[in-house]
Structures are given as C-alpha cells and as structure tokens.
Amino acid sequence: MKKLLILPAILVVVLVGAILAFNAGAFNATIAEKLSAASGAKIQFDSIAILTFPLRLQLGRTEIEHNLAQVEWERLEIEVANPLPPMDLRVLLRRPKVRMRETSAQAPPSASTPASPAPSFSARGVPAVRLTLRVEGGEIEAPQVYVSSLDLSFAQQLLMRAPAALQLTAFVKTSMIPAKLPVTLETDSLILSEESLKTAGLKATVAGLSADVQGTSLLKEGRHRWLLEVKAPDLSALPKPPDVVPAKNWKGAIEIAAELNKPSAEQPWQAEGKVKATGVTADLLVHQAGATAEGAFALDLNSKFLYLNNVPSLPELNGQLDLTGAKVLYADLFSKAPNVPLRLKIDASGDATKLSIRDFTLQVAQLRARLSGTASAQSPWESQLKIEIPQVALLGLEKLLPPLRQAPVRGEATLQASIHGPLAAPMQASITVESLRLKDFAAEVEYTKPGLVAARGPIVADILGSGLMERGQLKSAKAQGSVNLKSAALVLGPLRKEAGQELSAVFTLGNKGETLTIDKLEMRSFFGRFAANGAVVNPLKPKLNVNLVMAPLKMSELRVAMPEFRDKIPSGEMRAAVRMSGELANEKPWNEWPLQISGDVSVSLPEYKMVEANASKPAPPQAAAPLPTPSAEPFLPPGYLTNQLNLKVSADIGQLVKDKLLLRQVSAKGTVSGGRFRGQAAVGQIFGGSVKATALDVPLLTKSPTLQGQVNWDGVIIEEALGFAKPEYKTMASGKTAGRADFSTLMPGEKNFFAALKARGDLGAAPLTLNSVKIGEMINDMLKKIPLLRISPVKVDPLRGSMKTQFDMANETMQIAAFEAKDLDGSELQMKGKVLLSSMQVDLAGTFFWVQDQVKGCLAEGNSDAKGRLVVPLALKGDAMKPGFSILSDVAGRLAGRALECEKSKLVDKVKKQGGEAVKKELGKALKGLFGN
Questions:
Q1: Cα–Cα dist 95/895, whole Å
Q2: Could you report the per-residue pLDDT of 823-852, keeping only the tens digit for each?
Q3: Distance between CA atoms of 278 and 284, rounded to whole angstroms?
Q4: In this structure, how many other beta carbons lie within 10 angstroms of the beta carbon of residue 331?
C-alpha cells in the first residue's frame, strides 16, 4: 500500500520538475525551431513560462520574421480561467507591433489559372470556449497606413457560435491624410461563425464623424460586401470633435458613402464611393512646420473615387477652399491677415497613373496664378503643365510679405510659362518661359536671418525675360534689366554693406543655341566696378568664354565690409583684366576646374602685414617618437586651373611688415605661368639700404618650394642686418655694405632654411668698422707670448676702413675665396677660409700688412713689404666675435728668422769694411737690442 502511495508523489515531483525545467528555458530553442519549421517564419522569444492557479501560458518578448510582415510583442498571456466546458479562455497581447512589407500588386487570376480555395471553418471541431481577447498599445505599419495606440477588446460567449462584442480605439495616419486621426469601432452584434462574418450595427467614428458600417463576408465562398455611410447634414449638431482635430465650430454638411466588395474568390477587392462637403466652415488652429493658420475657412467639395482591378482612380475632383477669413503665416516670409483673399479652386480627375488638371487657380490678394495640364500620379511626376500669372499691379503685396512691409510695393508683374517632363527631376524636363516681366518694381525690404542674410532699405528692379531649357540645356534665352540696391543696407554672410554705398547692376543677356551670350553686364559696388562680356555654354554646368574687368577692387573697403576677415585682407586696390575659358566644374575643388585664366592683375597696397601661420600642434604625450614636421604648404594648391594660370602680375607695397622686419617701397613684377612666378622684385628700403632681385623663379604649386634668382643690394647698414639675423652679433661690425649674389633658397620659415640656402657672389663694405677683428689686440697677445722680441704694446683699435670679399655659401658653410680689409691708416688684412654659419665659427688664414712706426731696425726691415708695412702671418679660429690664434710659434719664428737674416747681411758688410773685432762688438749690441740680453 505504501508503494502505491509513493507513485503519485513521484508523478507530482516529475511534473513539477518538468514545469521548472520548462520555465527555466530548457526547451525554448526546441520550441522556436519547431514553430519556425511549421510556419515558415523565423521565430525567437526571450522566455516561455507555465504558471498554475489559474493555469497560464506566458510568452515574453517575441519576434517573428516573415516575408509578408515582421511581428513582435512585449508579452502574450493565455489564461485558462475555467478548464471545464465551456472553457473560459482569456488572452492578453501587450504592445504588439506589426510591420507589413512591400509586396507587388497581384493581377487577378486568369480563367486558365484555378483560384485558391477559400478557407473554411467548421464549428464542429471547435471546443466549447468562452473567449476574451485584449490588445493593448498596438502598432501596425503598412506601406500606405500607420495605426498607433491600438486598444482592442473582443468577447464571445461561445466561440464561433454566438454574437461577439468588439470595441476598438486607435489613431490612423494615411499617405493621403498625414495627420493622425482618431478612429473607434464598437458593436455587440458581430456574428462570427464558420460560415460568415457579418454585422448590421457596427458604429465607427473617424475624427469625430460617426459612420454606420454593415456588411457580410461569406468565408467559404470568398465573397465580401461592406457598406460605409457617413451622413452629417448639420456638423454643428455633432459632438465636439477630439482635440487632435485642428478646427472647431464646424458647420455645414458632409456626406461620405463607400462600398467595399469582393464578388468572388477569383476576383480582386474593389471599392467605390463619394465624398461631398457642402458649405463646410470651421475655425482653424494649425501650427505645423513653421506654418500657422488661424480663423475661418470654407470648403465645398464633390469627389468620387474608385478602386477597380487594384487600380485607384478619381473620376471627379471638384472643390474650392477659401481661407480669406483666416490669418495665415509661414515663417517670417508670408503673413496674410483676415479678410485678405486667399482662395484655391480645383477641377480635376485622374487615376493611379495620371491626374488631369482642368483648372487649378490660386488667388492671393489681387495676385492670381492659374495652372492646367496633366501630371503623373507617381514619381517622377511626369507632367505637361501651363502656368500663367496675368498682369497684376503689385501695390498692396507688402501687406502679405513681412520683409517688404516698410513701404508700399510698386510695379507690375506677369508670367507665362510651361513645363513638360518630370517634376521630380526638373533638369530632365523642358521648361519654357514665354514671358517674365517685372516692371518698375520698387520696394523697401526689412528682413533678417541671423548668421545668413539681413536686408534693410529700398530695392529697385526692372526685368524682362524669356527662355527655353530642355533637359538641362539652354536652348534660348533673352533677358535685360537693372537692379539697384544702393539705398539698402545688406548683410550677406560675412559681407556688410551700409545704406548709401553703391551696389547696382545692368545687364543684357541672350543666347545662340546652347550658348548664353553676355552682351552687357556691369556691376557698380562700393568696393569696385566689374564689367563682363562673353559667352556661357550650358549655364547649369557652365563652360565659360568670358572677359572680366575690375577697375579697381578696393580692398580697403572690403576690410571694413568684412570685419571677420579684416586681418587677412590688406588695404589697397587691385585691378584686373582677365579672360576665363573652360568649365566651372562645381563638383571639384576650384583649383581642379578645367578652366584657363589669362590676363593682367595688379595690386597696390599701402601696407601689408604678413600673419604668422598657426603653430603645429605638439605630439601627443603617449607617442613613442615625435611626429614629423609637415612640409610647408605651396603658395597655391596644385590643380589644372592653377597650373594653367597665365597672368601678368605686378604689386606695389608701400610698407611690408613681418614680425620686427620692416620693408618699404616693395615692388614685384613678372608672370605667373605653368605653376611658377618668374620676374623681379625690389625693396626700396631695408636695413637702411635697398635690395633688387632679378631672374626670380618661384614654384607656386610645390610644397617647400625652392626659390632662385639674382640679388643686388646697396647701402645696407651692417649692424641692423646682423641684429635682425642674430641679435648677439649686432656689435660684430658696423658700416654699410653693397654686393651681388646668385641664390637658391627655401622660404625663411622653413625648418631646413639654412641647410638649403645657397649663394655665390661678392660683397663690399665702406665705411666699415670690424669690431670682431681687433688687430692691435691680437698683436699684443702675440708679443706677450714671444719674450725674445722686445716691442712695446701697440694701440688696440678695431679695423676701420673698407672691405670686399668673394664667397660661396652652401650647407650652412660660407667659403671665403678672398677677403680683403683695409684700415684707414693703410694697414691691410688679406685672408681666406670658411665660416660655419650655424655656430658662427671661423677658420681663416692669411696676412696682416701693418703700418706702424714703433718696430725698427732689422725686425722691421726683414718683415716689411714694398710699402714698408710689417707683414704678419695670421690664422683666426673660433668664435667670430672674438677669434683666437692657432699658429703663434710659427709666426714668432718667421719674424725672428727674417730679422736675423737682416742682421747677418749687415754683419757681413761690416766685416768686409771694419774687421772682425769691431764687428763682434757691434753684433753683441745688435743682438742685445733685438732680444733684450
């Protein structure tokens, strides 16, 4: 007996264990795989759980992917409230989302193709079930319809065998009416069986309008017929519409009737109906996308619609919309007060492929625009339309256009035009302007769009034009007229124009075939005058053959007019007469345009300040090695246009400033061709002198360009030049220098400027004070180190006089082929060697010819040249500010040796004349005088 009692316990444990395993997700993958295989859809869910007391099945977040739709929900709960017949089944579906996929329209089946059998149901196989279904927060997205906030309650006491009750609320938005409209459905007499679905008392509301729905669907036969009828003979008697409807105080009558049917399983759905609005009025309150409409409107509409063979059509669309009583605003560009006419009238018909517009008239105040023709109902909206604005006086339009409200608008306007082709791609259409006339237009504008444009003041214009454009190609055009903005103040981006500053244009344009001819285009502005003539082929992708003259462009005025760029625009004037030939390929950077520009350009600047480029950013702290220094940018970006430039250029700059460097009377003249500048330049005053460069060759399109040419300078103050190059060397020398050199160099701002600098030439200096070469000090140092020579110290003075040298500079080293410096007293220094410019270290060797009167006898006689100057061999090494000797012993030996040779020669002569003893005594005296013992 005990063993028998154990068996139920084991079953309970097994059952509980199975439920726990099920709830833990052990079978989720298997269930999803089986359901996916059976349904043909991809199914996955987060969780499945079985709960007891009462028995419930819960599915967590679930996603179903099918080729027809994507379905997901947050939770599905099926509860068995009563397991005994009739079973009480309660279903809750929370936040379902259904996204229908695009499918191509199906053609009706042909006679040879058997129709699919209609689905059939049988109540015999359905158990006795009491069903309650609730859907909360549903969402359905289809290609033409979007349903949101869907709540549904469905209850049937005996499934498939008793009347059902249905309640539905939702918001519906369609492609035809993009606003969200509230929709409700309610009935307690929905008959749902295995044979049919029908009702005779379903109440529906759409945006507050009540509708009666009745119909039948014979499920086995595949036949359906449903009727929708809305009759509102007095809108004022209806309940207040929901707040989502942007209109109140409705009056008038609306009638809507529609029949939806499917004659058989083999035939497609079809629909037919009408919409009629008679004397409908209401008070609008619309605020959307920058547009506002407040006040009364009136609507009369008579429309019929059909849906046959999967094709919708509008056999009739006739209506009028009158917003005269409303205030209508659009941004800050349009403003219509109540009682100013604003009417729209349409008389049209069409189907899914084409809309025929017999008359579309828009009236705004006294301005009327009429449109007629045909347009396709699908993209790209192929059309054949005529547009007409009859001659109208513009007086009073300032009341509609806030930017022109400061004063009455004057003038007249007319327009006659047509368009044949796709509206979605106007460049592929044929656009004809038979006549465009804006005559004696005058207005005063007051408009501001922060950061973009601002205008204030009078505008005067007179324009007459016509033209034809086919597939983006200009076939004919003619325009002439004038525009005057002198009295207006304008802001266009960074450019500012004050009232009273000149700005006007006069033009006469025409065409020959696809070529637009510019017979006359003259623009007068406060910053210069411009004139152009020539031809433009295909203005939408223009190819130019145009002459442009600027005479002059006043950059000083632009500095004032463009304060944001003041530091980048120099003061002065520019004149130009150029010819432009080629294409403006706007899809490319300007320097790559296939455009050739030639002519003359000249610039005259009283002053130009060269602004330093921003310093390069330091390498990131985490970088293992410093980033390489980028190469200097070229003067112009390389490209077809910049390589094809062929310009004669000249510049005159009164004063050029770069950091502490000041240059006056700067001029340049030459040509820009093949990406290079060739010509000459001159500086009238730099470091107290002048510089002229000739045979200049400057690459304009390469990074780190190497400049070369010849330079001549005269009267340059040496100490000023040295002080600018390196302040610590300012006292090295003083005076003035002149010379010439052939040079090759990078720009001074380049990292490797000194390493790449090459120059060969000669220079001279007179007068000159060479403070770094103090010969007297050198000789005194030498005499101290030669005790055998008893010579009193000499006067210590820098070399004063003149200098000339020949040099060859490369790799930061200056080779001195010949250096000659002359003192005012007749002394002379001749040397050669080299100077390391990076450290200013000298290594020179040569001779000093010393004019002196304190060295006499054989020391002077044996070491003097023909002019009686003491010849002193010198070698200078070390810092150029204070060089030192390196071969003093050789100097001493040579001086003493030559002195002894002199004494020896004299001794031989005395021996011949006076005898040995007398000579011996004289020799002793001479040596004692020479060597001091």
A1: 115
A2: 888 888 898 999 888 777 888 888 888 777
A3: 17
A4: 12
